[in-house]
Specification:
About 20% of the residues lie in helices and about 15% in strands. By secondary structure, it is an alpha+beta fold.
Length: about 210
Amino acid sequence: MALKLLRDGRDSANTVAMFNIGGQLNEWNFFKNEFMTTNTPVGTYITNNWDQILYKTKFSLFTDYIFETGTSDMARYDQYGNEEKNIVFPWRLDLTPNPEVTALFSSEQPEEPLDYLNQLMSVPADMVLWELYGWDKPKQLGGKKHHIGSLKLQGQMTTSKWGDENLYMRHQRMEYDHELRPEWAPYYATFTDRGHCPYERTLKNLNLY
């Protein structure tokens, strides 16, 4: 899921969170699992699943930190566009689903895969969807998890053709967070092909190299 927060006279603040870069593993309840802005073990991540290598390799053309999105820009300006002099931002954001919302839906695959859109619209108006938590630093450095607030609907959810065609969510690169907190960099997972051509591993798995 993605968050976009508007700020006067500034670019909007954006972040993206997910359960896993590979999805929810045959789980069809959108609210079943906790979403995070970083969600893989620390270290260099090498995958041998060739069916996932294509998109991971594509992402890695732009950054090694394909499993994370940064949060520092969200803290750079307030809602009125005023710049913060001392930026304080979380190492990671966790979004914990409201159990009442989770209980509304089944984990089984629906007959129509896009039926999740109807499920979302059936969530009662003004419900709390997630509780938002932030880590003040990596766990390995003694980081603690703090409750920030609740993400609550204002009214009812609905589909939006304009949103489908015109609404974009920016993925902030982790490198910007590292400029402000370089001591955190070792505690984010990276994806690498060890200096090889980005598509070499994929071609080998397809017996085309």
